[in-house]
């Protein structure tokens, strides 16, 4: 679920926070979905629980998550503004991927054909 790069210049809590923010923004974590407990995530990633707690605390201050004493931390349901930001982030991701496809030499016609197949529910060839 998370990848921590010990060689990164970014502190571990920021890496964790950014990955959680991205998962929430992209809809991989649903509203009111529980986040991994501090203890479980600490054991899984092999990092200090205080580091995870700091990431969670900052995300709570940003309004991305909320906590329930004794129950854990949960994803905050998106407001209208958050939904707009989520859509913008999704579109930016799609644009990056389309630019990669263009840079790989995939023609507009091929991209359009693939898009049609995806939206119509057809399976793509492997």
Low-confidence residue ranges: none
What is the string of helix and strand elements? HHHEEHH
Helix content: 55-70%
The average pLDDT value, as a whole number, equals: 89
Structural class: mainly alpha
Please summarize the sheet with the most strands: 2 strands, antiparallel
Number of helices: 5
How many strands appear in the DSSP assignment?
Answer: 2
Description:
There is one protein chain. The chain contains five helices and two strands, in the order αααββαα. With 126 residues, it is mainly α. A two-stranded antiparallel sheet has the order 1-2. Helix 1 crosses helix 3 and helix 2 packs across helix 3. It is elongated, with a radius of gyration of 18 Å. The model has no long low-confidence stretch (mean pLDDT 89).
